[in-house]
Amino acid sequence: MRDLKAANQNAKAKTKTKVNRRKRQKQKRDWKRIFHRLLVISVRLGSLVLLVSGGFLVGQMLFDSGYFRVDSVRILNNQRVSQNEILGLSDIRQGNRMFDLDLELIGAKIEENPWIVSAQVKRVFPRQVLVQVTEREPQAIINLGYLYYVDGGGEIFKQLDSGDSLDFPVITGIDRNLLLEQPEQTRNQLVLAMSLIEVLGSRRVFTLGKVSELKVDVQEGLVLYTYTGGVPVRMGYENFAAKLDRLETIYPELEPRLLGLKSIDLNVIDRVIVQIDSQFMNRKS
Questions:
Q1: pTM of the full predicted structure?
Q2: Cis ω on the peptide bond leading into residue 252 (within 30° of 0)?
Q3: Please, what's the largest Cα pairwise distance for the chain?
Q4: What's the order of all strands across the beta sheet hosting 273-276?
């Protein structure tokens, strides 16, 4: 009986303890503090909305007021192509809205000029457009029925007009049909020819000014023709600098006799083979 009574007392004690714990856990909410937090959050959100709306309205007002409209176009690095030509190609007009300009399209239109390799167009806020161009430099002329300029990379880019300079070596041996039928092979030949012209541009004895023509020959490779006498100088396909080094050791002696020479061959290792024009010698005698 004692054990049963003790068990009942323990059970009642545990029940009272649980009830007391529940009563302690229930606390009154601080409605004043909660309201203050909600008020602060509301004020901040409202301020942010007003700030964004105000910024949007100010931006819209500036946009509509003409503040961001083209006032000037600045063009850099143009030498051969005039500013008026570039402006005409760009189709940019004073008063155009800055944000309406398609910069990539404008650059592509400017690059339609054969002298221009690339055109970078940028907005300079609030009212200026910057156009930076890179122009081509002719290094040779190729005869394809009509005369065309060729740049240092072997790119055929412009048909010569009446006022264009002819003071460049002429590349021959490539015709229009070959260019159309075998464009990749022709391109490689032009690149090779331009590499030889680049080497000639750095020489001091046998210079580029002493060359009138560069012929591309499928069998022989590249053949130079001297400005005086039109003597063929056979260069082959490679080692142009070393071959010209050999030629320059004796060229001061050869130059006065060019009219009496038939050819100069540099394709034999460590040799300069000079063939004399016997007919010229006979005429002279």
A1: 0.71
A2: no
A3: 159
A4: 156-159, 147-151, 138-143, 170-172, 211-217, 221-226, 232-236, 261-265, 273-276
Residues 6+ apart with CB under 8 A from 221: 234, 235, 236, 237, 267
* Count of alpha carbons within 13 angstroms of residue 36, beta-carbon side: 4
Question: Which value, in Å, is the radius of gyration of the alpha carbons in the chain?
Answer: 42
What does the pLDDT look like over 15-36, one tens digit per residue? 555 545 555 555 566 666 766 6
CATH class given for the domain over 72-135: alpha beta
Please write the tens of the pLDDT for every residue from 180-224.
Answer: 899 998 999 999 999 999 999 999 999 999 999 999 998 889 999
What would the two tokens of residue 125 be? Answer: 């806020």
Q: Are 165 and 207 in contact (CB under 8 A)?
A: no
Q: What letter represents residue 31's amino acid?
A: W
8 Å CB contact between 236 and 221: yes
Q: For the chain, what are the domain ranges?
A: 72-135, 138-284
Q: Which CATH number applies to 138-284?
A: 3.40.50.11690
